[in-house]
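For the sake of transparency, this paper describes our internal protein records without simplification. Because each token names a local backbone shape, the row as a whole describes the fold. One such record is reproduced below, unchanged from the form in which we store it.
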Amino acid sequence: MTSTLLEPKTRGVLATLFAEAEKDDRRVYGEIPADVQGKADALADVYMPISPEGGRLLYSLVRAIRPEVVVEFGTSYGISTLHLAAAVHDNGIGHVYGSELSATKVTAARANLDAADLSHHVTILAGDALDTLADVPGPIGLVLVDGWKELSVPVLRLLEPRLAPGALVVADDITMPSMHPYLDHVRDPRNGYLGVEFPVADGMEISCRV
């Protein structure tokens, strides 16, 4: 059996998205609003992707633990979502629930999943994750935390009652100062996690719900 990540449709969509995402570093941004909806609207054309290595890591983790429910906080244009959906497809079990605040990105992510023939494995919930993820069914086996950083802890706390024993929580961009409160939360043993930092671009934290 070969990985869906290696199939031409998926590879082609991901190659296009990663190429477009590389242009983000050359963009010049004006003043960005402080509120998350304002930021989402102002940065609707910015990809904010995981790294290719981070994507392969996510794929491998989902393949290994075979979760029935995967939750993604921060879908953006769907690069990470494609990796998660490919793993769910190859497992033959599970479903991905993504949350995205930008209407522009919701439309684009759905189109990208359609182009890779993986949309039937994913439900993208449009709006504030604190609202849209409130009703996602459990038990949740894997969570990707990659949305607006100031919401990382509130979103995780929202999901914690539905995390399966041994669930994995993966956070991207942990080198950003705005992720310090999140890291304080998952690295405090009193909060029920045991984890490790993984050395991919911008850093990932992998936390097991113990």
